[in-house]
Q: What sequence folds into this?
């Protein structure tokens, strides 16, 4: 999959793919908002069609991220380290909010 990502970003270029990425992020945001605002599912679990749509949009965004990650030669471990740090930091902030 990484080779596909590299081939695509090499063909279109970083800046055009960055612009395309913006639309993919918007579509994911829109899918989540629609699922959360669905008046028929407001108090229920998100239905299967909404989940499928959200999964599709997450897939689009993740594939775009893979293109940038591959282009810049960023290893999975580097990203995972940042994610762990950000998660722990946010949990600490939540803990501080609760205690204040």
A:
């Amino acid at each position: 999959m990484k080779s596909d990502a590299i081939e695509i970003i090499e063909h279109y270029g970083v800046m055009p793919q960055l612009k395309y990425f913006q639309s993919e992020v918007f579509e994911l945001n829109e899918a989540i908002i629609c699922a959360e605002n669905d008046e028929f599912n407001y108090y229920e679990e998100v239905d299967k069609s909404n989940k499928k749509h959200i999964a599709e949009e997450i897939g689009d965004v993740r594939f775009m991220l893979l293109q940038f990650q591959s282009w810049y030669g960023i290893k999975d471990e580097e990203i995972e380290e940042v994610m762990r740090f950000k998660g722990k930091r946010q949990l600490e902030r939540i803990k501080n909010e609760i205690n204040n």
In short: The helical segments are 2-12, 14-37, 48-71, 76-99. The chain has a mean pLDDT of 92. Residues 14-37 form the longest helix (24 residues). The CA atoms of residues 39 and 46 lie 11 Å apart.
